[in-house]
Amino acid sequence: MKYNILKTTSPKMPNLGRGTECLKILLSQASKDMYEPLVPMFFPILGAHMSGAEFQYPDLTWKEPCGMMAHLVAESGGNKGQLSYLVEALCRDFHQHDDAELKKLVEWQKIIKSRGANKEKPVRPTVAFWFPPSDTTNPAFIQNAMALEILGCRTQYFNLPEVEMADKLCGSHKQVSQMFRNIYDKARSGALRATADGVTGNPVLRACLTISSTPIAARTFYSRELFNGTFGRMVFSYKPRTSRDGRIPRLGKFSDEFHQKLDKYLVRLDACKGRFVIHPLNRLVDKLALDMATVADLADDDVLWDVSKRALVSAWKAGCILWVLNNQTWSKPIGEIVEWLVYHDIWSKMQLFSDLLNGKDADQVSEAQRRGPKNMLDSLPNSFNEAQLAALRSQLGKTPEGAKGQLNKWVFRKFITYSAETGLYTKTDEYLKRVDS
After folding, report:
1. How far lies 266's CA from each of 88, 102, 128, 273, 296, in Å?
2. Sheet of 53-56, strands arranged across
3. How many helices (H) and strands (E) does the chain have?
4. What is the pTM of this model?
5. pLDDT tens readout for residues 351-375
6. Residue (of 343, 335, 346) closest to 20 by Cα position
């Protein structure tokens, strides 16, 4: 375990080395306080630039870099707006394409209006938008997905500056959960309308989303979606409140030189076609899966274990994108970013939603009182007995009867050893070295 996500401080992002130059270029236009929060937000946008490429996950399934969703959470005035500037920089090619598609629609509408009621009217042209507006309705979203499927299976990308905008995109708040899950899983979304003007179709949902909100808005929005799979599918990037330093953050100038450098990388994404297996990435994800089980055992937290499974998939997709950006070449810094993305996502989830995940009343728990999973072994002395762990579990709201099973897991993972003579459990040197590092 490289990062301790059981602390309140965020996992520190590794240095951006060889293979992550595209991220460096993007961050050159952001203020330094936004470096860590913004990096996870880039990948849904970058993934939307790819079509016709599939990658094999360690479970041997093939996945596309679509269905990527990330949610930036920070207090009001926390510089979340910087994301929109970078979105526009990354989506200049999308705007050019969509402007041409819009002209086709405008010309068609002119012809319709110019002809009388009894004259034959031309069929609506098949147009597909790559970067639809944030106020897109659900029927328009389905219609666009149908057109994209016909015209080459491209991915549509949405940037929602406020999380409540997702209600309109999905049809209503009650439909958000189903729609987000379908998008993440690249599932079909059947739409059968009873009116003549309705949209009927069953396209594959190839879409990527980025969302921004305050912590309160995020907690309200997802409060009923924490245990149905929606919550785990969304990547969260949380920026805690910072000190009042009185400094106004500086943005970049978004110069022509910046756009030229960025465009070279976007071309690589667009040109990537075919099926690929990235063996170093898959070995890393296998290792991270074991690390996630270890963290969950230290905290005896099933929720942490559950959300980690899709956090691995999301970070793995980001690794595929970085591999393509690096001329389809693996590098150690790419692996370090992928590993950090997993821990940062889970840490963000636990900082924002831990009390809700543990069944506490959101209205009665202040932000200062929220806490994520706790490494119980760190809270015990180097040598301890079962009664001490049982007492600690009771303090944390867990059943004391689970102490025996937890001790067995710790012995199995070689975190502790047991002495039958003394009846004490002792932390191993291997575990202590891991904690110190």
Report:
1. 13, 23, 20, 14, 38
2. 62-63, 53-56, 274-276
3. 16, 10
4. 0.85
5. 999 888 876 544 433 343 345 577 8
6. 335
